[in-house]
UniProtKB/TrEMBL annotation:
Residues 319-421 form the PDZ domain. It holds the Pfam family Trypsin_2. InterPro entries: PDZ, PDZ_sf, Peptidase_S1_PA, Peptidase_S1C. This is Serine proteinase. It comes from Gloeobacter violaceus (strain ATCC 29082 / PCC 7421).
Length: 439
């Protein structure tokens, strides 16, 4: 039998442990200090313990939720009778540090969102011109007829926003459609009615009658996104229903010009390398918690792995207006403008036949004033350089657009311009921007 250590030996061991713990405490953080203390005591006392849980968290090779899933913000700045939108219930902060997403976190996220993803098919009849060969050869003997009808079909994706059948998609998916058909995730097919569409943000709302308590997609917060985050695209590319692709957020706040769409689109885009193809338009881009953070809307045909989505916070704002008014009411003054940049000045110097140089090296250059518009009535002219709006300095066309867009229809906006080296201010009364079809 082994003899127990004497009293003197125990005192020496205890002093050694205290001294070593004191040294470790001055060098390590609180939690590391506790581990060192346990390790020393265990070693001296001849005991053993496992750090298996700690080791797994470091080498398991799967993402660990460092923060709880962001809570969905479902309120609008406007008082809107929105349907009961789905909310996102993420892990509580207290348990976030121990929440594992698991090796199949992409499949888990897609599984949460997929039941709410729908396929949208559209039809429209167009009259196309044309005469038969006989009519072309003897036009004077054949009466002129109207165009010949031609059936055009389109397809896209969407997702159910509320259990009563409110569906969100891209405006270009349902543009000029005579008939809209919606196929639910469970295979049921129904017709849809376009409640409203906004060409400038490419967002549309459809209503379907398929019962109540339909599966919905929880909404996330696109303002909290960061480049490099995992995202998943769910949709029906090329007619392949419920296709799931994954990638990361490549960049945020891409402008319309960078994306290559209409320059008057009034929003920034999320760039992703998750595969997006024709038919994905209108489908959700979701985060690792299965929350919708964007609507897939465009790809760059001249590249690979370059797709774009509309941020979900913008979708919430536009959807609220469409549900309330059937359209988005925006103020308008009637100018075409461009930001003056070194690149623009260089191009104009190299190609003087394109346009004359602006009379400034910075500011917002008015290229055209629409005849009869509020800007024309107020006295603004082409080639004026906008330097301030409502007393706020501007250097980009986007800033002018945002400042005027923040006002209400009928408000008067002060626009200060540089003209012939002189500064002048004009009071412009806004009117409602008419909705124009997508081109």
């Amino acid at each position: 039998m082994r003899a127990a250590p004497g009293r003197g030996a125990r005192i020496a061991v205890e002093r050694f442990v205290r001294e070593l713990t004191r040294i470790a405490g001055s060098m390590l953080s609180h939690w590391k200090k506790r581990l060192v203390q346990l390790a020393v005591v265990g070693a001296v006392a001849g005991g053993s313990f496992s750090l298996g849980t700690f080791a797994v968290r470091q080498v398991a090779g799967v993402p660990l939720a460092a923060a709880p899933a962001p809570q969905a913000s479902l309120t609008s700045s406007d008082s809107v009778p929105l349907p009961a939108l789905s909310s996102a219930e993420g892990p509580q902060r207290a348990s976030a540090a121990t929440t594992f997403l698991g090796p199949n976190f992409i499949a888990d996220a897609a599984e949460k969102a997929s039941p709410a993803v729908v396929r949208i098919n559209t039809e429209r009849v167009r009259e196309v011109g044309g005469r038969t060969p006989l009519e072309q050869f003897f036009p004077e003997f054949t009466p002129r007829r109207g165009g010949m009808p031609r059936l055009e079909q389109g397809a896209g994706s969407g997702f159910i926003l509320s259990g009563d059948g409110t569906v969100v998609t891209n405006a270009h998916v349902v543009e000029k459609a005579d008939k809209v058909y919606v196929t639910l995730g469970d295979g049921r097919k129904t017709t849809g009615k376009v409640i409203g569409a906004d060409p400038l943000t490419d967002i549309a709302v459809i209503k379907i009658d398929a019962g109540i308590d339909l599966p919905t997609a929880p909404l996330g917060d696109s303002d909290r996104l960061r480049a490099g985050e995992w995202v998943i695209a769910v949709g029906n590319p090329l007619g392949l229903d419920h296709t799931v692709t994954a990638g990361i957020i490549s960049a945020l706040k891409r402008s319309s010009n960078e994306v290559g769409v209409r320059e008057d689109r009034r929003l920034d885009f999320i760039q992703t390398d998750a595969a997006i193809n024709p038919g994905n338009s209108g489908g959700p881009l979701v985060n690792i918690y299965g929350q919708v953070v964007g609507i897939n809307t465009a790809i760059r045909a001249d590249g690979q792995g370059i797709g774009f989505a509309i941020p979900i916070n913008k979708v919430k704002e536009i959807t609220a207006s469409l549900l309330r008014d059937g359209r988005v009411i925006r103020p308008y003054i009637g100018i075409s403008m461009v930001s003056i940049t070194p690149e623009l000045l260089r191009e104009l110097k190299e190609n003087p036949d394109v346009a004359k140089l602006p009379q400034a090296e910075k500011g917002v250059w008015i290229r055209e004033v629409i005849k009869g518009s509020p800007a024309a009535t107020a006295g603004l002219r082409a080639d004026d350089i906008i330097v301030e709006v409502d007393g706020k300095a501007v250097s980009e066309a986007r800033q002018v657009q945002e400042l005027i867009g923040a006002r209400k229809v009928g408000d008067t906006v002060s626009v200060s311009v540089q003209r012939n080296s002189k500064l002048s201010t004009f009071e412009v009364r806004t009117v409602e921007l008419s909705q124009t079809p997508l081109s």
